[in-house]
Amino acid sequence: EALGEVGLELAIDTYKQAVEQRPDHPASHRLYAFALLKAGKYAEAFAAALVGARRSYPWGRFAGVPQILDEDLRLIAAAWQAARPDDKEMLAALAAAGVTADTSPSLRFVLNWETDANDVDFHIYDGKGGHAYYSRKLLPSGGSLYADVTTGYGPECFAIPGKAAAFPYTLQGHYYSRGPMGYGMGKLEVVQHDGKGGLKFEERPFIIMQDDAFVDLGTVARAL
Description:
Radius of gyration: 17 Å
Number of strands: 9
Helix content: 25-40%
Strand order of the largest sheet: 4-5-1-7-8
Number of helices: 5
Structural class: alpha+beta
Strand content: 25-35%
Largest sheet: 5 strands, antiparallel
Order of helices and strands: HHHHHEEEEEEEEE
């Protein structure tokens, strides 16, 4: 995804195969949809996000995911609407799905990883001394961690509605329990919405090798 147009097309192909092979993993659907969106393939991105948002997932897994996927769908709808406001295909697709485009600014950090039966905890620190994680999901400055996924893969999302006001945000992953699958690799995705369909992204891959290790996922010092 960081290698320009050719790299993005390779990413799209990889995520497409992930969806085909493991449709029961929500991360496959959302990564595929957002890669299509970055390539300007709005209709395909919306369709991919819709499939992910409307299917069922194994019971007891992927806590908080329905909210994440629903909000992803509304963000993609907003980007499509902003890019092609008079597109009849867009209007029909949104109407048929009953989806309303998101019209509020937001900043969200989404963590996913590629190993099963393990627990990667997401820690978020703001510039005012606040700290959010699995047992304290809210930041007083604004924003919340939707859920703690303890059974592998994620995604976990921390979202700040409105305009973020407590920069810098420092982000960490904690390998709380490695489980049987060995090292964990994945990525943090930063998604900013201006409230008008303008989306900006940052992708931050990571690898965690040891039980109980913390990995620095970087700082978001200002709006993207």
